[in-house]
Design a protein that fits this description.
The chain has 232 residues and is of the alpha+beta class. It contains 3 helices and 15 strands. It folds into 2 domains: 115 residues, Immunoglobulin-like (Sandwich); 117 residues, OmpA-like domain (60s Ribosomal Protein L30, Chain: A). Strands 3, 6, 8, 10 and 11 form a 5-stranded mixed beta sheet that branches. The protein is globular.
Length: 232
């Protein structure tokens, strides 16, 4: 608890012992900067955090235009998605899994925004599928809805969706899975009113890994869907 009553400075930090039954839920302080991905210069952006289970927005911050710094406090024990948006830039999303955190913590997360230009690629980090299937999970909808809004706001924008798997298993099966997942994302966008003529799709299977497939963490990074701007 922070108080300036009878303090010897601006404020005093006071620790108070509480019984377990009345202790508040632990929280996580998330701090970071929003930067131009090309120039590394600070950007003013709106950062929204959402509970991926419910799809509800749970917090919002605005980065300092001079430094790009932002901070927000989240309740631990949940899985969050968050994204930064600024005019002229593609909204960048990240995933923040706080389910295993049971005490106050501090995390640093920088966000790099990419200018909306032909040839730029963005990973859809909060798009999730059933294991080894092309069935979209509901947690994916907020991320895909943001892509819909980008395409609605930029009516001449055309994209190519690109699907990737890790390198395990049969290469042909991986290729088919990556293509099916791309088609699932395309179908969702079309269902929201985006013309299918504006969306190309291509699966690459495990042929284009981001990192080596030697750990499960790396394999998760290689299993992804991206979109590339091909026309504006």
């Amino acid at each position: 608890m922070v108080s300036n009553v009878n303090s010897h400075g601006l404020t005093d930090i006071i620790r108070v012992g509480l019984e377990e039954s009345i202790k508040p839920d632990p929280v996580v302080l998330v701090e970071g900067r929003v930067l131009n991905a090309r120039t590394q210069t600070p950007l003013e952006a709106v950062i929204e955090f959402e509970d991926l289970a419910s799809g509800q927005t749970v917090g919002e911050a605005r980065s300092d235009p001079r430094t790009g710094v932002f901070n927000i406090v989240l309740t631990a024990g949940k899985n969050y998605g968050y994204h930064a948006a600024a005019p002229g830039y593609l909204a960048i999303s990240e995933n923040l899994d706080l389910k295993s955190i049971d005490a106050y913590s501090e995390l640093n997360r920088d966000l790099l925004l990419v200018p909306i230009e032909i040839g730029e690629s963005i990973q859809l980090k909060n798009v999730f599928f059933e294991q080894s299937k092309a069935t979209l999970l509901p947690e994916s909808y907020p991320e895909l809805d943001r892509l819909v809004r980008i395409m609605v706001s930029n009516k001449t924008l055309e994209i190519q969706l690109e699907g990737h798997t890790d390198g395990r298993g049969d290469p042909e099966a991986n290729l088919r899975l990556s293509e099916a997942r791309v088609n699932a994302v395309k179908d969702y966008l079309v269902s929201k009113g985006i013309s299918e003529k504006r969306i190309l799709g291509k699966g690459f299977g495990g042929a284009r890994p981001m990192v080596s497939n030697d750990t499960e963490t790396n394999r998760q990074m290689n299993r992804r869907v991206e979109f590339k701007i091909i026309r504006m």
